[in-house]
Amino acid sequence: MVKHKEPDHTAINLVGAGTTIKGEIDSKGDIRVDGKVIGELRSKGKIVIGDTGIVEGDIFCVNADFSGKVEGKADVSELLSLKSSAVFRGDIITNKLSIEPGARFTGTCSMEKDAPAQQMPAGEGNKS
Predict the structure, then answer these.
(1) Contact predicate 100/88, CB 8 Å
(2) pLDDT of residue 103
(3) Assigned domain for 72 exists
(4) pTM (2 decimals)?
(5) Is residue 123 part of a domain?
(6) Which domain holds residue 30?
(7) In whole angstroms, what is the distance from residue 74 CA to residue 66 CA?
């Protein structure tokens, strides 16, 4: 009996500059976008949006670096880095967020993905 080995998930998928893809991209490896994607991006690894990259759609991944333009929701389970040239419009859900000076972000950010929201009982404000 032949056993099939599951391939390593180290593949890097590239959407090159000058390329436009409409639809969903789902990968177990990393994804780099230097062109344009209109649709959903999903990766079990890292998604990098380069300086010339444009994404119009939702992004789901473990880690991400954005240098280009993104419009949609970014659901990043670990670290999202917005580089100085990044322009992001939409909602961020992540555990850790890094925003370099010069990056532009318009939207909402939630960083309580794995921790339950802890609310203070009414009347328990600052007791100084």
Answers:
(1) no
(2) 97
(3) yes
(4) 0.80
(5) no
(6) 12-110
(7) 10
